[in-house]
Amino acid sequence: MSRIENPPTAPENPAVTRAISRARELLSSWTVAQYLEWRARSARPFPKAVTVDPGEPLGDILRVLAKHNILSAPIIERTTGKFIGFVDVGEILGLFVSRACRWLEREHGTGYGHERPSLPQNRANETVGLYPGSLRGEMYAAADDASLLEQLQSTLGEGTFTRTLRAARADFPESDRGDGEGIFRGYAQASLLAVISAAFMHPIAEPRLRPSAAAGALASNHRVGVYDWDPAFDDGSRISDVSKFEVISQSDLVRFLWDRRGDANASAFLSLPVADALLSAKRKKNAPEDVRRIVAGETKAIDAFARMHFERVSALGVCDATGALVANVSASDLRGLTPERLDSLASDVRDFLEDARGAGERERPATCLATETVRDVVERMVARRVHHVYVCDAERRPVAMITPNDVLGVLADVLVEG
Q: Which of 261, 259, 246 is nearest to 195 (CA)?
């Protein structure tokens, strides 16, 4: 058994605590092996993971993800079978943003870090955002946003999208790793509660697996690789049979709770009010105020994603002039992004969303009231296949954001197998 040093704070309401304990009982009664077998038999097809090699260029990885219409992929060295974690579209865009900002911060054209000395000097010496308004006014007065982004892309493209993932991460070691950077060496008989507590939320002690967050902070891994290994022969970092490699995500386990809603233990948790079960836990963890994670519809898409990268959040609410929520922009909207389509990020965020989802597909974001139940939130996540449900007031002004991490976070146990 291993103990979480900073376990999620449990609600003080006895009825809420009992309901959470019952949900934990359900999750602890299912092993990883049982869940994967049940998932394989389910009506929803679950494709095998597409993998990438850390020696592949970022541009090629983006094209692989776009080809398979996926956002992330496990990183497995093809020569050794070593599993390194995951990479996602958001991380690659973040590396581009970081590299562009590094270039914009250059005072002289003599090279900075891994930049080439031949890059133009940045006279404005801008440090905020990818290409802020003052930079546009001082240096690119006659250019629109699309052509400016194209110029940055062509200038930096060779240095960014042709660099390997391994090299790009070395350039910016402080940058967040991809979706689910933790590695869960999936013992087949570990419980689903252990996956939540030890893989999604547990601090990772090994230096090579430690997230970039402050030491001791709980990891927030969106998905983890699951595979068996023999401790008598290796340290668990290598995969002998990639075809048997499985991925379990936070959304998968939220969907599991919904599929088991007829179970009395699951029903007890799902029946809890959102305010008591989820919002109180967010307040006790001193989580950043979700209400501040909003942007105007006229914000450039690249600026919105740059803000998400630097603030390390997965989504931003898009509000109109009255403060009412009209859209949601998240890492999922980067699906299909390639170096050749990067100029689409120069459009306003609302236009970008319509283009990314198809004409007329800019659907309203998923919302709920604080008086609704966890069941309502989970149902909307599953039915609409979204990761963010906004808690809004009667005028649709967002007051909080609920994610799978919030739902599972209150279920993470203090004591887990391991």
A: 246
50: closest CA among 82, 84, 74, 67? 74
Neighbour order of strands in the sheet with 325-330: 294-296, 315-319, 325-330
Residue 127 corresponds to which amino acid?
T
DSSP per-residue letters across 117-179: TTSPP-TT---SSSS-HHHHHHH-TT--HHHHHHHHHHHHHHHHTTSBHHHHHHH-TTSPPSS
- 278-296: per-residue pLDDT in tens? 887 766 555 545 556 788 8
Q: Which residues, given as ranges, of the chain have pLDDT below 50?
A: 1-10, 106-144, 179-184, 203-219, 288, 360-361, 415-418
- Under a CB-based contact definition with an 8 Å cutoff, are residues 55 and 75 in contact? no
* Angle of CA points 265, 269, 272, to nearest 5°: 145
Angle at which helices 250-259 and 374-384 cross, to 10°: 110
Are 347 and 303 in contact by the 8 Å Cβ rule? The answer is no
Find the length of the chain.
Answer: 418
How far is 92 from 108, CA to CA, in rounded Å? 26
Measured in whole angstroms, the distance separating CA 304 from the mean position of its chain's CA atoms is: 15
Q: How many Cβ atoms sit within 10 Å of the Cβ of residue 261?
A: 15
Which residue reads 């391994």 in tokens?
166
Q: What are phi and psi of 266, to 5 degrees?
A: -70, -40
CA dist., res. 297 & res. 318, Å (int) = 6
Token readout for 133 is: 């308004």
Question: Using alpha carbons only, what angle is made at residue 32 by residues 313 and 11, rounded to the nearest 5 degrees?
Answer: 50
Q: At 337, list the tokens.
A: 């992004």
Residue whose entry in the numeric block shows the structure tokens 């609410």: 317
114's tokens: 């891994």
Beta bridge partners of 116: none
Other C-beta atoms lying within 10 Å of the C-beta of residue 159: 17
